[in-house]
Amino acid sequence: MKNNHNLEAKKIVDQDNFFIKKKFSQNFLLDENIIKNIIKESNINQESYVIEIGPGLGALTKHIVKIAKKVLIYEVDRDLIPILNKFFHDSKNVKILNQDFLKVNIDQDINDYLDGSSTVDVISNLPYHITTPIIMKILEESQNIKTLTLMMQLEVARRLTSKPNNKDYNALSIIIQDQTHARLLFKVPKTVFKPKPQVDSAIVRLERKKQNQLNENKDFYNFVHKAFSQRRKTLVNNLSDGYREFAKEYFKNLLARNNIIDTIRGEALSLEEFKNIYEDFKKGE
Questions:
Q1: How far is it, in rounded angstroms, from Cα 224 to Cα 177?
Q2: Distances (CA, A) of 285 to 208, 251, 254
């Protein structure tokens, strides 16, 4: 009986009158081994409060509800709500909301449905077209969410977890790694989804760093974005383009004071090096 949910879900997806909605990036994960690995890596227990975004047909949900204390689910596709309600009508620890996560008040919902917990875990097979906006919304709007165990496009996973001097390393890498401890856990082949996406996926785990609020660092992140504005340009050229009130010579001197050559590109600098030159830059503003 343990795979009964998966069999039911597969039957639903296989029905002629079941329409996959591309606008919601719907790719349903039905591989039980991968699902169990995601749950294991999430480290949730019987005291956990969990948010799931885009549960689809509940492949992850069915495991989460057996473990967690309370589960809050956001599903934007109203046609999936009756299916989810049917699957989980006996689960007293689940609240299913037919809402677009990008439009909700996260902390209000945590207060209303998750006992106001300050240690919420997010577990999700994210809609691929809005992966970054969802992550940034969480980092900007809620200090109550402490961990995120997320399925996403492999390319995005590499970007979030990339290190300097790597083609995937960019401004987003620095922002995510300043806010969280980010790890790419394992890859997920496209063959385990229905319908099969065009790209491979990966599981990423983000653990929030204590007292590191994104909103308080926006000027620094703006500085980093300018540093990567044109990848083929040097850091000096990108910064002088981004801050036209300063001469190019100013940024050459800024780098020299921090023992960085003026021909370097942004992708060669670590998070700490960016922080150092930004702090120096702030003094001269």
A1: 13
A2: 30, 12, 12
Do residues 263 and 232 touch, judged by C-beta distance below 8 A? no
What is the DSSP-derived secondary structure letter of residue 24? G
* pLDDT profile of the chain (285 residues), mean per 10: 51 46 55 91 97 91 96 92 91 96 97 97 91 94 95 94 93 94 94 77 93 78 94 94 93 95 95 95 80
Which CATH number belongs to the domain containing residue 226 in this structure?
Answer: 1.10.8.100
Nearest to 269 by CA among 281, 282, 255, 279: 255
Amino acid making up residue 153: Q
- Residues 51, 182, single domain; the answer is yes
Is the domain of 50 the same as that of 126? yes
CA distance 275 to 118: 29
pLDDT at residue number 193: 76
Q: Within this chain, do residues 130 and 244 fall inside the same structural domain, yes or no? A: no
> From CA 229, how far away is CA 261, in angstroms rounded?
19
Percentages (nearest 5) of helix, strand, coil residues in the chain: 50, 20, 35
Same domain, 155 and 23: yes
Domain hosting residue 222, numbered range: 216-284
Contact 29, 50 (CB under 8 A): no
Distant-in-sequence, close-in-space partners of 92: CB < 8 Å, separation ≥ 6: none
- Residues 191 and 91 placed together within one structural domain of the fold: yes
pLDDT at 19: 45
Tokens encoding 265: 């590109």
- Given this model, what pLDDT does residue 6 score? 53
- Specify the pLDDT at position 139: 92
Would you state the pLDDT for residue 277?
96
Residue 4's identity, in one-letter code, is N
CA neighbours within 13 Å on the CB side: how many for 196?
Answer: 5
One domain for residues 104 and 243: no
